[in-house]
């Protein structure tokens, strides 16, 4: 199935694009008159007397990184960070063929997703929903209900994805104790480099990308990079196909011997034809359905599209005393288009009729301005060297979603079981916008954190953040305001080096998390509060090229949203209503091993488990797998086969369930049993510049639910898939 991406009816601001383009030109002109030496080298960090270790993973051929700063804002090795941290490197992204956000996070330790419909995915870690992404360290709150493409971003523009599991309120402010996910974009390289790939796969998949980096001046003080990606594919679901376009440009300029300015512009467009929800799990007589994997609750005219432009400016200055100052700003502008038919209830086993029908059309816009000011560096106290960092952040997020109602008599929805035919017409829509969701959210805060060297093997990390949070909302005509001020988030961590390989650590932080969940009257639930504790042991083998960690943790929360069975938000028949829970507690452990075993052998392996219960000792958040085991490895053969790399992996997830799922005549419990998905890959280097690869996903064609019980519906996971690609590098 082929289709063409239609131009947006609400283009991204051309004024801001023109201004940023002008900034690129002025940067090049100003930088040519300054500095004497190039600084476009891979980022590195001084790790307390150890060798300089790069954070950038591109070109490292590794599944780990030398340092991360996502946890507390100070660059530290994985072993020195007193929390569970992981990284999905550029090499792993390419080896596994991870093309978008969902695939990257599904490969990461302890993270899983639940599908709500064809486009909206909800990610979780340690039993809680991940509600905040970061891009180059700048926070980007996720709106799970109005998804502006956050789960469909193309992987081509990222160097790595850093993940900190557990509570990360020190840097993110309000947030759940699940994980902080930091997408780190590619930067210009010190020398000319170009690469590109083209691939095909099952369901008429076509994918390609081009990546070019080049110095713009002879001395290399100014360099630019451009990445473009294209993706198009049908799916195993009838009348459902996806397409995306991505364009990313970045310029890095040395404005002085110690000053670097980086500016970038990112454009992403995602479209889904045939957008829809899951299929019914019950017939009208109460029996379970058993449809094929092509079953869909959609129409051919269903559509979901997002288009966004993100401008980013990052200014860094290194003082002579080794202190580093940073000022970063990001502007996001996005458009949202959705129209589809939602059918609820249960079809008659013989006629396929009897389901309710809602014809829905939404359009909207979202803008977000992020500011981030930081200062960090060393200081001397009592004859020892320590580190200190300060930061101030501001997020201004404006969301407007309006609905358009169908005119006149809506079309007949006919027989649900006839999903393979185009038998449902699109209604005529009103031209006037009806009231929808208009939400303006402002968050600002400041933090301070220090890493104290108490003794050669002992380091203490102390920090605190003060946050303010404001929400002004017009929710389908109901005006609401929420104000949370001077919320303090403390942080403490202790790391003890047993020797040059092993370290023990413990950490604590409090929790403050504003929720998007709504009560039966449509009001947003009060924020979640609580505490998070963690302890563990870490190891850095082979000079840090292979990292291992074992962590145990406990999280206690008050006010966590719990679904009210069979109750929807008033006036919103398709939106689940929630109540504030009491005494939620999660206990668990993480085990991980990642990096290079040898120069030819890479490995990423993890095992995670948690138990989540409320004050009544009842299991909560059971729609997320309690236990996950993930393995992926590659090995480059030797001898006459030294141009061949083979690999594969497996992901095992324990069973999930939903209680009190509505069915004809009452409620029931539903469960998806545990399952394993196996993948294989191979890559052959034809020469120094050209290679071919093959990937097989879901090797044994496991049939499983990617979502079960959400509004009494289900969604099958993707069957076996074969993908072939060719890559050229210069």
TrEMBL record:
Highest taxon listed in the record's lineage: Bacteria
Signal sequence, start to end: 1-31
Domain TonB-dependent receptor plug positions: 78-178
Keywords: Cell outer membrane, Ion transport, Iron, Iron transport, Membrane, Receptor, Signal, TonB box, Transmembrane, Transmembrane beta strand, Transport
Listed CDD domains: ligand_gated_channel (cd01347)
Ranges for domain TonB-dependent receptor-like beta-barrel: 255-699
InterPro entries, alphabetized: Beta-barrel_TonB, Beta-barrel_TonB_sf, Plug_dom, Plug_dom_sf, TonB-dep_rcpt-like, TonB_rcpt_CS, TonB_sidphr_rcpt
Locations listed in the record: Cell outer membrane
Short motif TonB C-terminal box, span: 713-730
Annotated PROSITE patterns: TONB_DEPENDENT_REC_2 (PS01156), TONB_DEPENDENT_REC_3 (PS52016)
Pfam families, sorted: Plug, TonB_dep_Rec_b-barrel
Topology in membrane: Multi-pass membrane protein
Chief localization: membrane
Similarity annotation: Belongs to the TonB-dependent receptor family.
PANTHER family the UniProt entry points to: FERRICHROME IRON RECEPTOR-RELATED, HYDROXAMATE SIDEROPHORE RECEPTOR FHUE
NCBIfam families to which the protein is assigned, alphabetical: TonB-siderophor
Protein name, UniProt field: TonB-dependent siderophore receptor
């Amino acid at each position: 199935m082929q289709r063409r991406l239609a131009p947006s009816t609400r283009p991204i601001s051309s004024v801001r694009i023109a201004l940023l383009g002008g900034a690129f030109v002025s940067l090049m002109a100003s930088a040519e008159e300054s500095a004497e030496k190039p600084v476009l080298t891979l980022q590195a960090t001084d790790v307390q007397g150890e060798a300089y270790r790069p954070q950038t993973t591109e070109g490292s051929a590794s599944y780990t990184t030398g340092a991360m700063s996502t946890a507390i804002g100070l660059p530290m090795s994985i072993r020195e960070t007193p929390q569970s941290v992981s990284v999905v490197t550029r090499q792993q992204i390419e080896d596994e063929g991870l093309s978008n956000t969902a695939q990257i996070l599904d490969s990461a330790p302890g993270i899983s997703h639940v599908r709500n419909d064809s486009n909206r995915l909800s990610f979780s870690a340690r039993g809680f929903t991940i509600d905040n992404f970061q891009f180059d360290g700048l926070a980007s709150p996720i709106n799970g209900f109005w998804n502006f493409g956050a789960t469909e971003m193309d992987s081509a523009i990222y160097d790595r994805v850093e993940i900190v599991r557990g509570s990360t309120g020190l840097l993110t402010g309000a947030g759940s104790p699940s994980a902080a996910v930091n997408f780190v974009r590619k930067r210009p390289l010190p020398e000319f480099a170009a690469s590109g790939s083209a691939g095909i796969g099952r369901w008429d998949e076509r994918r390609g990308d081009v990546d070019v980096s080049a110095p713009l001046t002879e001395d290399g003080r100014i360099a630019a990079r451009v990445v473009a990606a294209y993706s198009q594919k049908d799916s195993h679901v009838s009348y459902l196909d996806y397409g995306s376009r991505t364009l990313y440009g970045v310029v890095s300029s040395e404005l002085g011997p110690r000053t670097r300015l980086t500016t970038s512009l990112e454009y992403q467009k995602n479209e889904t034809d045939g957008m829809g929800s899951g299929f019914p799990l019950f017939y009208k007589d109460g029996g379970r359905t058993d449809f094929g994997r092509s079953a869909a609750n959609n129409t051919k005219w269903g559509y979901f599209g997002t288009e966004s432009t993100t401008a980013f400016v990052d200014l860094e200055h290194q003082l002579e005393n080794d202190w580093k100052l940073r000022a970063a700003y990001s502007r996001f502008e996005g458009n949202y288009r959705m129209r589809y038919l939602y059918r609820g209830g249960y079809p008659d086993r013989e006629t396929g009729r009897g389901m309710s029908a809602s014809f829905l059309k939404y359009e909207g816009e979202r803008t977000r301005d992020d500011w981030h000011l930081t200062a960090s560096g060393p200081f001397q106290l009592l004859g020892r060297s320590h580190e200190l960092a300060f930061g101030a952040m501001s997020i201004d997020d404006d969301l407007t979603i309006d609905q358009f109602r169908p005119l006149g008599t809506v079309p007949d929805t006919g027989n649900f079981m006839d999903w393979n035919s185009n038998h449902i017409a699109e209604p005529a829509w009103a031209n006037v916008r009806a009231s929808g969701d208009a939400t303006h959210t402002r968050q600002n805060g400041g933090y301070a954190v220090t890493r104290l060297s108490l003794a050669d093997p002992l380091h203490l990390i102390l920090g605190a953040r003060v946050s303010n949070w404001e929400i002004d909302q017009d929710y389908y005509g109901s005006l609401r305001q929420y104000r949370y001020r001077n919320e303090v988030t403390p942080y403490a961590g202790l790391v003890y080096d047993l020797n040059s390989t092993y370290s023990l650590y413990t950490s604590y932080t409090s929790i403050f998390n504003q929720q998007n969940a709504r009560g039966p009257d449509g009001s947003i639930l009060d924020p979640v509060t609580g505490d998070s504790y963690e302890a563990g042991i870490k190891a850095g083998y082979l000079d840090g090229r292979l990292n291992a960690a074992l962590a145990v943790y406990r999280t206690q929360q008050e006010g966590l949203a719990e679904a009210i069975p069979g109750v929807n938000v008033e006036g919103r028949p398709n939106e689940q209503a929630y109540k504030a829970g009491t005494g939620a507690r999660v206990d668990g452990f993480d085990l991980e091993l990642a990096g290079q075993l040898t120069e030819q052998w890479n490995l990423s392996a993890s095992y995670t488990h948690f138990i989540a219960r409320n004050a009544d000792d009842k299991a909560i958040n059971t729609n997320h797998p309690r236990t996950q085991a993930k393995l992926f490895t590659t090995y480059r053969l030797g001898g006459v086969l030294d141009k061949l790399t083979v690999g594969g992996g497996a992901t095992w997830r324990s069973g999930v369930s939903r209680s009190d799922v509505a069915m004809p005549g009452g409620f029931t419990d539903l469960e998806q049993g545990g399952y394993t998905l196996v993948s294989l890959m191979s890559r052959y280097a034809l020469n120094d510049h050209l290679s071919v690869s093959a990937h097989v996903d879901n090797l044994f064609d496991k049939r499983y639910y990617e979502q079960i019980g959400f509004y009494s519906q289900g969604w099958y996971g993707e069957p076996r898939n074969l993908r072939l690609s060719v890559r050229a590098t210069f």
